[in-house]
Amino acid sequence: MRIVIIGGTGFIGQAVLRECLMTWGRELQAVVVTRRREGAELFPIWQQPFVWDVSESPPPPSLVDGADAVINLAGETVAQRWTQSAKQRIRDSRVLTTRNLVESFRQTARPPKVLVNASAIGYYGDRGDEELTEDSPPGEGFLAEVCQLWEEEALKAGEFGVRVVCARFGIVLGAGGGVLERMIPVFEWALGAKIGNGRQWMSWVHVADAAGLVLHAVMNEQIKGAMNVVSPNPVTNRDFTRALARAVGKPAFLATMLSVPTFILRMQLGEGASVLTASQKVLPKVAGETGYKFIYTDIEEALREVVHRRQLISLAYASTI
Ligand SMILES: NC(=O)c1ccc[n+]([C@@H]2O[C@H](COP(=O)([O-])OP(=O)(O)OC[C@H]3O[C@@H](n4cnc5c(N)ncnc54)[C@H](OP(=O)(O)O)[C@@H]3O)[C@@H](O)[C@H]2O)c1
Fold it and tell me: Which of 9, 20, 29, 180 is the most exposed place for a label (fewest CB within 10 A)?
């Protein structure tokens, strides 16, 4: 099983690679495409690094020729102040990377069987209490526009007989990356609070299910087009705040009484505050219809696992120094 992962060095990429190793073991040939030359020698033996900036130019066709799957998870973080140049990096690192990747498919005699390309539930914009599935139309705003362009580029791989899945990730919860790396320390200091009135919907997914769903898409030929990578139980920001305070062992009533005013977030993050304030009640229709069994469906259980794992990682780290 030959799998090429662009952005495989990242939070979701590493989880996907672990899942691939558990699924295919010795049959797995994993190529991790990274822009970073330094440190490539430290990759685990079963992950073959390939140094290339796919946002700059199409990779050599030999990289993707005959691959069983190509998984593209590259993208500049959206967790920053959205200046004009940051917005350009956010857009280009997704849209141009995908365009160049598809161009490399054009140049090969044996294009990959499937492309699982990252997208995000940002596609739906800010939608209040509306229940959103893969069939729902896109929303408005910068992220919604980027997601549409990103998906359009990925879907062009269909011209070369490649099955394309656009994995619309929700808020991915796990140790070692994503939003919780910033939120947990704040909650551990008992400084956690809901955002605005806390009524906005948060569509979350545990990283184990995010990786599980990427592999589900690789293996399941029925899946084509958009697939929401979210748990079946979105929660309001207020319920998320309560669950996170409980998971770190701090009083939940305080966190849910206090709130971070949205104007302060806008002052700090500009338009980027929309990542925290937008309401998206997204459901995993495709995952459900194709028989994916979620490991985590309960927010409290998912958050407790992440807090516990972070403690284990810091204990293991402390014992090595
Ligand atoms: N985590 C979430 O909650 C979440 C939610 C929705 C969507 N997503 C999407 O899922 C994908 C993976 O997310 P993640 O959390 O794993 O992200 P991550 O940890 O930040 O990893 C993304 C990878 O993209 C590459 N990258 C970063 N900036 C880049 C740039 N300017 N140009 C080209 N490549 C760049 C990096 O690889 P190298 O440095 O090795 O090249 C990095 O390892 C992203 O596209 C993200 O938008 C994530």
Answer: 29
